[in-house]
Structure formats: C-alpha cells, structure tokens
Amino acid sequence: MSIVIQENMTVQKKLEVLSDAAKYDVACTSSGVDRTNSGTGNSGIGNSLACGICHTFSADGRCISLLKILLTNECIFDCKYCMNRASNDVLRATFTPEEICGLTIEFYRRNYIEGLFLSSGVLKSPDFTMELMLRTLRMLREEYQFNGYIHCKAVPGADPVLVEMAGWYADRMSVNLELPTADSLRQLAPNKTRKNILRPMKQIQIGRMENRGKPAFNRIPLMEEDGYREQGFTKLEQEASGDRGNTGSLILPHETARNVRIGQGTANTLIAEDLQEIAEASSRKTSFGMIKAPSINRGFVPAGQSTQMIIGATPESDYQIISVAEALYQKFDLKRVFYSAYISINEDSSLPALNQGPPLLREHRLYQADWLLRFYGFRATELLSENRPNFNILMDPKCNWAIGHLEQFPIEVNKADYYTLLRVPGIGVKSAQRIVKARKTAILSFEDLKKMGIVLKRAIYFITCNGRMMYPVKIEENYITSMLLRVKEKLPFDMEAASAYKQLSLFDDVKFASANAQIGSFI
Predict the structure, then answer these.
(1) pLDDT band for position 213 (50/70/90)?
(2) pLDDT at 249
(3) CA 358-74-286 angle, 5° bins
(4) Do 273 and 155 reside in the same domain of the chain?
(5) Do residues 354 and 462 both lie within one domain?
(6) Is the pLDDT at 10 greater than 70, yes or no?
(7) Are the beta carbons of 34 and 131 closer than 8 angstroms?
C-alpha cells in the first residue's frame, strides 16, 4: 500500500495528526520527580513535581496533562497491530525538533500542559529517529532552559550511545515490550526482536544504578524458574543478558566518566559488542555532530523506566502476562508495566476480531493484579497457576485469592502482622498502616476500622475484632462468593464508555474552542 505524505503541512495540522497518533501509547503515570527551577538567576522555565505530571484525572477531578505527541508517524516497520505501520494508507507527518520545542514551551506558558511525552515511529532507521529525539531533548533543556518533566521513548535497535545520552535529558524513559512473549512478537511485529527491546531496558537500569552510586552488576537474586518456563521468563533473561564473558572496563559518555566493570559469568550484562560501542562514544560523531555530555547533571532517568504490553492481540493467558511483568520488575527495576487493551484498528488474518470492543475489563484486572505484585507482597504464582491461568472477570484478584484460601481466615486485626493485614479484601496499604499504628495504644473495634477507611462490606468475612466477627458469617466458599458479588465493584468511570480508550484531544471538544484560537496565535 502507498504512504500518504503531505508536504508543507502547517504546525497545527501536524499537531492534529501526531497528537492523535500518540493516543495508543499508555502514559497515565506520576512523574516521580521533584525538581525546582535550576536556571541561573531563575532564568529557566518550569518545575517538575512528583505528584502532578500525568495524562489522567487526579483524585479531585483535575485533568493533569502532558503534551503527548509523536515525533513522526512515519515508520519503516510493519507491526500488524499498529495504525502507523508502513503498509497502512494514512496521512503522515513529522515534526522538526524546533517545532516540538516551540509547541512545548508555548503550551507550558499558557498552562495547558505540565510536561512532554515524546514517542515516535521509526523514521529511516532507529538511529536516525533516536538522534532527532535526542536533539529535541537537548534543545529543550539547554537552549530553552526547560526544567519541566519529560518522558521519552527509547527506540528499540537504536545505538546505545544515543539511548545513554537521552537518559541524561529525560526524567523517565520507556521501551515498549509490545507483546508478552517472543513468539507473539515474531508473529505480529516481525521487524522487532526481544533482544533489541530488552537491551535498552538493561542499559537504563545499569545507568540508574551507577548514577545512584550503586554497583551496576551485583547479581539480583533470581526468581525460582519453576512455573516460568512456559511464560518465556528464561528467554526473557537470556535475551537480555547476551554474551556472558568478561568484557573488561568501559567508559560511558558523561562528564562523571562512570566506570562500568562487568564480571565474568554475570547474567545482568549488556551484549558485549554494544558495550564496546558505548566505550567508543568519546569519538562518536552523529549526523548532528559530536556526542556531548549535558551541561547540567539532572541525573540519569531519575523517574525510572516503564514499559507497555498489548493485551488481547495474542493468546497469552493472564498468568503468562503477570509472570512476565513480575520478571520485568525484578530483573529490570521497572517503575511500571502498563497494560493496553488491544484495539482492532487493522484488518489482518493474524489479528483477533473483537466484536465487543477492547478487553477493558481484562486490562483492569491485570492492573489490579499488578498493584498486588508491587505493593501487597503477592507473587504471580499465588494469584494464578497453569491450571487456573486467567482472572475471574466478576471479582477482583484479591477477593478471588482470599476466597481460594479461606483456611487462612478469619484473622484477628489486633494481632495480625502488617503483611497479613494486606491480604484481607477491603484493607489497603494506608489502612493497614493505620491499623498497625493505632493498635499500639488501643484495642480496635469494627467502628474504629470503619473510621480508618477499611471497606467493611468486603472485610467482614475475613476478620475478627477481639475474637468476634461483626456478624455471624459462614466461612464457606459459595456463601462468601455470593455475598461479595452483591457488593458492586467500583470500576473506572469510563469502563463502559465507548470512548474509554481515547485520549484527551486538543481539537475535538467545543469547550476548547477558545483555547484552539489561542493555539493558532503561535503556530
């Protein structure tokens, strides 16, 4: 199929095309960075706040937004699930670095945004695209003195030197895993390899550890391999580690001259030839000139890295997906794994036909399970198994686990330890902390628990206060299941909406008509 490219496109038209094309990249996340203006004489622009940079709605209803755009929607790859794939007949546009910088600054000055989310298709080659993104970040930071939040996508297959340099300008970086297993990647994204995706992930992890003054190659304890073979966990680690020989001592291209030493037999290594390329960075010249260190050391990817998996395009079970996510958290020190419900936008025999729209409820269950992995001390093998590979769509994973382990309940809230409390449905992290703190000075009652925010309509089947349950309850699976199903679960507000997967548009809402008029004044 032909590619439609419109020449002499206005910046506003490019913004319409490339902001719409960016909606499939998930970025609903806090920045994780607190940084005040550091420009000389307060001459810089913008601050970055850990609690406020995301493209979502806050608890009080405010829309907190990034300028979320692609550098280009042109792409040499032909991923079957992607709207911007090479074979699709779509309008193509490409920003220049100067245009992105101008838009970011003008939007920020008008208080429309609080930061930048920059992703891209692959224009000409991964290296060429990553160089353009690096030039954009450098221009924002050094020429415009922009000190706000920047989230930048790393392009799989790009030169490690370019990924390294982008990490000194961005607050957060992400490399999309795309699909849960290497087999699915080969089937639907034949131009991408698991090695090219995991390699920059490992590089970013190493850079962050070195920047924090920690040894980069201390062996992270391996999870037991049992139960992960079918999920591709072993392949995930092998593809990330590459050659395991002794590659010596290498210098990375930053003013601090970070020394990275790789020990023989270490599994947490980059591929040797890539490290050799990094070592030669001091003499590397790109199409934009010599690789140079940033003028200000903001830290290397201080807000950490994340990734995204498409859910529902391939036949992996929930157990496989959360097992891979657990491996990523443990082996690559990721801040977040995002799950993106597959949206049927291309016709292809390799893709599933979704008659009822994107699997948003499944995506929601995976996010709930991901939260249990990260904050509640659960493991993937506790939540699911090969014999029970998928979550119950009628009940959240924590309730489902509790019903399957009734032999551990009820627990006494005045005696149970913190991690046991976390496993009770209706008790969250904050409420468990409140219980542990309050019972040092008092014996807690059900009324006290209600004041602390415990959801008693869920918890009453699993706890006692002073040896007594709130009501006479049969500790029996069918009874508790039926009672919990009567408790209407609070789903995301747009779960049933037809446009649940759409991002906020700058152009299609009448409420923004006056804003668009102002936008036109500077583009």
Answers:
(1) confident
(2) 28
(3) 130
(4) yes
(5) no
(6) yes
(7) no
